Amino acid sequence: MATSDSTRQGHQKKNERRSAQATAVLRMAGTVRQLLSETGHIPPASRALVELMCLPVTALWCRVLRFDPQAPTWPDRDRFLVPSASMLPLLDIMLSLTGSSGPYKTPQNTHTEIAPGPASYGIAAAAGMALGEQTLASRFGRSLINHRTWAVVQDTDLASGAATEVAQLAGQSGLDRLTLLVASLSDSPSPELITSLALFQASGWNIRKITAGDLSSVTSALAAALRSRKPTLIVCSPSPARKSSDEQNSLPPAELTGPWSLTARRGASARRSWLRRLVRHRQRSTFQREQMEQLPPLLSEDWLRTWRWHMRRSHDRSTKNASLVAFHTLAGLLPEIMCLSSSALPLPSDILTDHTLSPPENSTVICGSKAEGMSGLMIGLALHGGLLACCQAPLIAADRMMTALRMVAFMRRKVLLLLTENKLNQDCLSGGLLSAEQLPALRAIPHLAVFRPANVHETFQCWEAALRWKDGPCVLSLTPDENPDTPFPKSCFGSPSRGGYLLQHQHAPQVTLIASGSEVAIALEASHHLAKQEIRTAVVSLPCWKLFADQPETYRQKVLGGSGIRVGIEAASGFGWEQWLSPGGVFVDMNALNISAQTGTSYDRSGSIAEAVCEVVKHHLFASGMMRDSLPQAGLPSVDKNAESHSGKVIKQEWKTQQWQSK
Amino acid sequence: MATSDSTRQGHQKKNERRSAQATAVLRMAGTVRQLLSETGHIPPASRALVELMCLPVTALWCRVLRFDPQAPTWPDRDRFLVPSASMLPLLDIMLSLTGSSGPYKTPQNTHTEIAPGPASYGIAAAAGMALGEQTLASRFGRSLINHRTWAVVQDTDLASGAATEVAQLAGQSGLDRLTLLVASLSDSPSPELITSLALFQASGWNIRKITAGDLSSVTSALAAALRSRKPTLIVCSPSPARKSSDEQNSLPPAELTGPWSLTARRGASARRSWLRRLVRHRQRSTFQREQMEQLPPLLSEDWLRTWRWHMRRSHDRSTKNASLVAFHTLAGLLPEIMCLSSSALPLPSDILTDHTLSPPENSTVICGSKAEGMSGLMIGLALHGGLLACCQAPLIAADRMMTALRMVAFMRRKVLLLLTENKLNQDCLSGGLLSAEQLPALRAIPHLAVFRPANVHETFQCWEAALRWKDGPCVLSLTPDENPDTPFPKSCFGSPSRGGYLLQHQHAPQVTLIASGSEVAIALEASHHLAKQEIRTAVVSLPCWKLFADQPETYRQKVLGGSGIRVGIEAASGFGWEQWLSPGGVFVDMNALNISAQTGTSYDRSGSIAEAVCEVVKHHLFASGMMRDSLPQAGLPSVDKNAESHSGKVIKQEWKTQQWQSK
């Protein structure tokens, strides 16, 4: 009897406590609703959304969310994402009520984990953060890393490609600490929503449908999310009678310090014990270094040594291979590297035997053809902190990663993106799109540095420069094309780490050949041809435009040279090249570079291509009257007069259509 | 008894015929396999694929596919797509066996419906073609349009975002004449494939799994696809024992004219009867005009008249509104217009009342947030012929449509893309990405013309120029920002239809302000301010770079002006602007344009912004020694010295980060 009494009393106590918490939450929700009604300039559409999500979000913040208003940048805080601008007012009110200050736009207020953008990318970023949490937890244990990721989105956001791809990736790597709160305004689920839910379910997500107005169902859904072994999707639809919790007479915020301070106290104490654990943790220094995004001392020396040591064994001299070795050696030195890849990163066979160089299996996620989802995860990894995200994909997929790159660049986060170009002959013979054509689009993104190294030596220097680039993300565009056996000459002036340098120089050059990547070898070959015909040339390699543009005017002038015609050579569209070509300069693109490809023979970067470049150069020297030579023989690519622009002739990219129309 | 006898005989006959056809197909498959084994340079991975799909594709071509080798461009042919380069050898053999000549790379051989690219876009393009077929059939009836679309893809292609988005769109509009043959090499379906199939099923597709080696199941699957009321997906997996049909001793092609000529005869007779129906068809002339992609005579006159007539009633002077009216009036005149839109195209309220202007409901597909899938459908519509695809989306989504745009531009097909910019103040206040930043990436695509009209008048002229642009797709970038009430001055020299023109000109200008879109109004305002301070200015509007670059040098010189500083003004990254700025030119971007946004006040294009521009201009005039004025007062955007390039200073896009870091 006594026992049963005590149990009964226990139950009563529990019920009372629960009801007390419930009332607290409902009162909060009432206040939030009141504050919302007071805030002006919310468009009606988003107002409905915000009011729908009012109770679930309040319940989350009151009861579940792990955060400390005093320490907004606490590494082990729960991440709460509001990706779409329409729901930001709700977040704003939550922040003001928890005593966190600052408009949500600025990162000073780091409760705001992400800048508003396409909402589907918010979902992707949330998954990325959960992935980061998972990886760090496996390294440092749950004593240091033990938080969750929450995102508030709208049902229409689930249908877009980025979301569907990320849904599959999240299911694949079992991100059980990721929860999406989905606002669905329509009382009955739309066919689109049904489809999306089917996909999420099939990809291994928990789906729960709740009435946003009913506190008990909200609480149980949140509890289920905490228990779940899968990523969770909570669909919040409006209750048939919307009045559910409007009866709660809302009280002035002054009185609401009670429940909130409760929440805040919970967070603060959690953080204090976390700090105690951190002090005792044996990997503390590493953890702190990574959190502060500092590189270990003497990194570059060790890196360069190991890289050299491995490269001496490799016979494949392509920049792709050199960069692969650079990545693997770096991954050995930097445990914070997290790699997303469209395919497994193979080591060249002649190095594979070496077991000191183990690819970071544990921290590599293979994303297959889901380039957009991968780029979304990249955002999350970049924002989570304590990780250095490396992404590997074919350059042709860059278009699908552009939005994510823009967002990362806009938020000035650091990401390394390794893009592999197709072999040029492959491009030409398949008759499809040119991979290198994405380069201008990438270069146009502010704060994003694009590196296109020309040989093994440059590759490492570009890697290092990319690692030191503080302004935002970096892209390394690499080619599997083998370098010719003839090694490059030593740099006459400058170095690749300054973005551009003088590779070869004759006194008072009549022509300056400017190229990047595979095309530098062509430029060197062409300069030899021209030298035979007593035309003085200089050859400039331009691996990174942004770095080069940051150099002082004098340096740039000295590299590019004052006199003589400037000839740009790149297997891409000439857009943007005018800034390096003086008036009267020329841009030579696939039109000339693919003569051999058009004739069906495979693309070799010596021989025919270089000769074609020489013809173009001689043609323009003659036209500009700098050469009193006989007219160059026929067979050179015609200069499209229409493409003349006042700052340099640009030969339009005609080769494809020529090939296209040819029998 | 007699009856039963006759029926029995009938059955026998049928069985004999069926078996005869079966043997024919199997013999063909044998030959194809033999030819495949003879063709060299097929990478092993794709060889397995090709051999797997050998029998299904042969059966399709022998028994089902509707084509006439003599008339490869027959409008009512079945479309057969092989989007990925890896399976092209199979198509190649099919073509050679059907007596169609030419390598598959060139469009001379129009059996090849699409250039090789990302395979998921091949799926999307196939759906687009089926959509085109559906639309045209509803206009001209099944007597003229009665074909199907088939595509051969790999299971991994189904997972990518473009494919998932298109799967939903295809299901949504019930494209029952679309069939995908999916090659799945693994004997047991991978979890990824299972997920994709779940999505396709949920989006309303028929799924059939067959053994590629078993002819009967192949035939029944094809028959089911012909009967189906939904889009069909046929998953072809290898038979446990691969030897299924290798027993067929393969015969030399010489002997195989039998079955092929049968197929060819079937196609030829089908086409002959189609031609007879065409002659009798009452919409014959329209059909032929649209097929030849000719515009009706006097189109522009009628179009301009109706457009003017509607515009006089509209009070909203934004280019977005003007372009909406232009689109609706055009849709009234050109029935071949097919519209894909991310949202319903609303007419401005003051015109809506007018019932002569009905939006083309029947030929509009709402794609919601599925921008990538929409762009994929666009490819298909562009390739199908007889349709003019118009696509409408927010400019911020342009990134996700880039791949499709590249492909359409590469294949030189015509598409109209209407992209709506955000209101600038909206961009700034939401603190998110800038929509206008996509412009350089779009301008960098060869053969793609980007139009950015500045006012109502320019909008129509740009529309017309876009309609006449033969080189490839067109993009119109429009803004909902209202134009200021002060109307633009008449053009002093040139016209918008030439890509750029002189809007305002004072004798021997010291400064030429070059702008596009909303920024032209700022330039005009600034020129007024400068005029007050006795600085002579010219204002140039540059709605389309490609058109302007195609103008003769003399025209461009006269518009841009020889003397004086050139100042580019655009709310985007300055990448590529150097080609219009003479050495010493300046580019003014958001840094200056968003001073008001930073201070929180909403973006107005007169006042503060224009004054900021003036300050920049005066600063540079002074620096260049062309103005003996007092130093301009403080508060002007600082010129980032690092951003100097030898062909013009470019003020780097700093404002966002300023805003981002500001409290």
Element layout with pairings:
The structure is a homodimer of 663-residue chains.
Chain A: H1 2-38, H2 44-64, E1 79-81, H3 88-97, H4 119-140, E2 149-154, H5 161-172, E3 178-183, H6 191-202, E4 206-211, H7 215-227, E5 232-237, H8 257-280, H9 284-291, H10 299-311, H11 319-333, E6 337-341, H12 349-352, E7 364-366, H13 371-384, E8 388-394, H14 398-410, E9 415-420, H15 424-430, H16 439-443, E10 449-451, H17 456-468, E11 474-478, E12 501-505, E13 511-515, H18 519-532, E14 537-541, H19 545-550, H20 553-560, E15 565-569, E16 586-588, H21 590-593, H22 595-598, H23 608-623, E17 644-645, E18 648-650, H24 655-661
Parallel strand pairs in A: 1-2, 2-3, 3-5, 4-5, 6-7, 6-8, 8-9, 9-11, 10-11, 13-14, 13-15, 15-16, 16-18
Antiparallel strand pairs in A: 12-14, 17-18
Helix pairs in contact in A: 1-2, 2-7, 4-5, 4-13, 5-6, 5-13, 10-11, 11-17, 13-14, 18-23
CATH architectural type of the largest domain in chain A: 3-Layer(aba) Sandwich
- Specify which chain pair forms the largest interface: A-B, 92 and 91 residues
Largest sheet of chain A: 7 strands, mixed
Annotation field: number of helices of chain A: 24
| Strand residue percentage of chain A | 5-15%
Q: Which CATH first-tier class of the largest domain in chain A would you pick? A: Alpha Beta
Task: Please bin the fraction of helical residues of chain A.
Answer: 40-55%
C-alpha geometry of chain A: elongated
Distance between the termini of chain A: 98 Å
- Low confidence ranges of chain A: 101-110, 243-248, 595-606, 629-663
Domain module count of chain A: 3
Task: Give the strand line-up of the largest sheet of chain A.
Answer: 12-14-13-15-16-18-17
Number of β-strand runs of chain A: 18
CATH homologous superfamily of the largest domain in chain A - what is it?
Thiamin diphosphate (ThDP)-binding fold, Pyr/PP domains
Mean pLDDT of chain A: 80
InterPro entries (chains A, B): THDP-binding, Transketo_C/PFOR_II, Transketolase-like_C_2, Transketolase-like_Pyr-bd, Transketolase_fam, Transketolase_N
Pfam families (chains A, B): Transket_pyr, Transketolase_C_1, Transketolase_N
Cofactor (chains A, B): Mg(2+); thiamine diphosphate
Keywords (chains A, B): Magnesium, Metal-binding, Thiamine pyrophosphate, Transferase
